[in-house]
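Example S7 (structure tokens).
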């Protein structure tokens, strides 16, 4: 077979072979395959620092941290070494009735850095399964504390526009119409309250006359449902997948108080916001709220491997204790739960965050990105720029006055993201929201370049 070497070392025949296998056999998530097959795909063959390298040798700045999980760049020497060392001892062993050092050490470390009182760690594999575990813990907690009758009508309360993952339980507490409505007939019925989407405030307030009245919806729903709500779940700080919607200050505190008053557990989903993204290690720390259950994933392993965790308080955990035949233990788990290689990657990541410098630098970088995007704020097709730390969304609209969206088929944000590849940037939008979520370790120059390139691409597509 004739082989032509490219700059990445991959032969041309091999390159074409990969594309053929991908085209013929690979079904991509959240991807319209008919369109994907018509396009030339991005084939990432390597990565270095904050850059993905494709099979043509193109280097693309990783502006959405792959899928919001990469924290400190790719091929970080300390994380690479930790995974290699772990590989020399143990790749995987079960946590069902046994343990291993990496999982035990990671559990201890997570408890040290989590909001106080979250003393117990249940491992899973990804964001959705960490949420599933939390939902089932909340249900079984209600069963164990209040008995069978109390759980017959048990329900979860969640927010419109929420995203907690794609498994059925996580989707049931989700509220992004586009992702979740199709599956409604097979989803557990849940109670929903309007989302604090301030740009399109569901109760008609403006930022100037807002006193976070939307939090009353949670309190009222809990009062109305007479204690059948076993848990309230939400993303603290930012409803990320809905387009980086920022929760107003004080919202979380009021929801936490309402949960306490009505005896519902509070589950905080820090899958997207955790590990420094918003400028504090966890977003809930901004308001000093400690939930009963907290889900973490994505950045936990630095974006290397699929490990997630559901943290619980003593009060929750202790209820599950009893003699074997009482059947109080948590009936849930996965084969690869607490995978040793993933735990090693997580421990190395947390060591790199330990002195607080990376997270402390987020506020300066946040400002650099904010300043860089500022000229876009008055663009006639930019509805709003929302940013918390290094999580940022630029909502594009067809008309600033009516806030009308572009027709769905126009795929404006998608086309802008595609064109950014020619400027050396990899980004993936959410509908008409351009999402910027670069690694925490991005340099100020990289952030300036990202913001400037985005501005240029928006103006090229939508006029000056
Ligand atoms: C807040 C939140 N929860 C859960 C998930 C699901 O995580 P995963 O894709 O790892 O299942 C996501 C993914 O984007 C998320 O943003």
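Recovered sequence:
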């Amino acid at each position: 077979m004739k082989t032509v070497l490219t700059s990445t070392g991959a032969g041309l025949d091999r390159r074409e072979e990969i594309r053929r296998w991908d085209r013929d056999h690979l079904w991509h998530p959240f991807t319209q395959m008919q369109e994907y097959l018509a396009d030339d795909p991005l084939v990432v063959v390597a990565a270095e620092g904050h850059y993905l390298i494709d099979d043509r040798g193109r280097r693309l700045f990783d502006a959405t941290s792959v899928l919001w999980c990469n924290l400190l760049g790719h091929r970080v020497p300390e994380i690479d070494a930790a995974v290699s060392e772990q590989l020399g001892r143990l790749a995987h062993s079960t946590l069902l009735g046994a343990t291993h050092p990496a999982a035990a050490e990671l559990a201890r470390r997570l408890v040290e850095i989590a909001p106080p009182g979250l003393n117990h760690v249940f491992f899973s594999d990804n964001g959705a399964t960490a949420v599933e575990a939390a939902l089932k813990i909340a249900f079984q907690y209600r069963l164990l504390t209040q008995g069978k009758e109390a759980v017959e009508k048990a329900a979860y309360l969640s927010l419109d526009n929420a995203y907690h993952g794609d498994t059925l339980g996580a989707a049931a507490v989700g509220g992004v119409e586009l992702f979740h409505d199709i599956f409604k007939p097979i989803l557990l019925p849940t109670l929903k309250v309007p989302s604090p989407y301030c740009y399109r405030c569901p109760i008609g307030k403006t930022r100037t006359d807002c006193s976070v009245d939307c939090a009353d919806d949670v309190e009222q729903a809990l009062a109305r449902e007479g204690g059948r709500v076993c848990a309230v779940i939400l993303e603290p700080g930012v409803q990320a997948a809905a387009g980086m919607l920022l929760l107003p200050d004080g919202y979380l505190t009021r929801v936490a108080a309402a949960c306490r008053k009505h005896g519902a557990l509070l589950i905080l989903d820090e899958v997207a916001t955790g590990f420094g993204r918003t400028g504090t290690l966890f977003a809930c720390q901004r308001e000093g709220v400690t939930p009963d259950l907290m889900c973490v994933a994505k950045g936990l392993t630095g974006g290397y491997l699929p490990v997630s965790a559901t943290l619980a308080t003593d009060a929750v955990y202790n209820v599950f204790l009893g003699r074997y035949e009482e059947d109080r233990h948590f009936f849930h788990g996965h084969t690869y739960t607490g995978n040793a290689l993933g735990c090693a990657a997580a421990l190395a990541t947390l060591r790199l965050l330990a002195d607080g410098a990376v997270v402390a630098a987020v506020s300066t970088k946040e400002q650099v990105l904010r300043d860089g995007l500022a000229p876009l704020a008055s663009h006639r097709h930019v509805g709003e720029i929302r940013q918390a730390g290094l999580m940022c969304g630029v909502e594009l609209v067809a008309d600033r006055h009516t806030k009308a969206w572009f027709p769905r088929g126009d795929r404006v944000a998608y086309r802008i993201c595609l064109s950014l590849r020619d400027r050396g940037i990899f980004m993936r939008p959410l509908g008409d929201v351009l999402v910027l979520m670069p690694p925490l370790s991005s340099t100020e120059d990289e952030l300036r370049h990202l913001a400037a390139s985005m501005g240029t691409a928006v103006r090229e597509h939508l006029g000056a």
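Notes on this example. The first strand starts at residue 44 and ends at 48.
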